[in-house]
Amino acid sequence: MAIVYKGRVFSVEVETVRTPKGTSHEMATIRHGPCVVVIPILDDGRVVMIKQFRHSVGRDLWELPAGNVDAGEAVEAAAFRECEEETGLAPGRVEKVGALFPAPGYSDEEMFFFRAAGLRPPAKDSPHKPDDDEAIEVHPMTVAEAKAMVGRGDVVDLKTAYGLTLI
């Protein structure tokens, strides 16, 4: 096995793998730590969506808040943190509602989905702020509005489209 690329978010490994059929093939795998996807629900039932620019696709995307789990951090703690960092609202509680591998053909990334409720303004001394490379707009909307955005093609982010099926 050889690491051919190592970046801030992921690395790429190349190795020769023996398949169940007995043949050998060179395979590349993107190694990516776990991440969380948060489905923030306000007390009135609206879902909090965010809009942010994604360099990889060159445009603004509608998304649910999400982010990487830090080394040594529990996924539940990451859900609390990411919700506050990206929406400016601190959840009173989070509940795990699912998990999936978005691209198992070439990546080991696992996404953990959490419903967040009891959303309130964070403590004044909270350290949780958006990352320096993020410019996020927060948009609460009804669940029906968010799901209609998926149907119209306004939501093209797969984790968000899937996450909205969980509410």
Structure keywords:
167 residues; alpha+beta; Nucleoside Triphosphate Pyrophosphohydrolase; 2 domains; 4-stranded mixed sheet; 3-stranded antiparallel sheet; 10 strands
Shape: globular
The helix content, as a percent range, equals 10-25%
Q: Compute the number of strand runs.
A: 10
**Biggest β-sheet description:** 4 strands, mixed
CATH level-4 homologous superfamily of the largest domain:
Nucleoside Triphosphate Pyrophosphohydrolase
Indicate the proportion of strand residues.
Answer: 35-45%
Mean pLDDT value: 95
How many DSSP H or I helices? Answer: 3
Structural class computed from helices and strand pairing: alpha+beta
Q: What would the CATH topology of the largest domain be?
A: Nucleoside Triphosphate Pyrophosphohydrolase
H/E topology pattern: EEEEEEEHEEEHH
**Distance between the first and last residues' Cα:** 41 Å
- Number of structurally distinct domains: 2
Reported CATH architecture of the largest domain: Alpha-Beta Complex
**What are the segments in which pLDDT stays under 50 over at least 5 consecutive residues?**
none
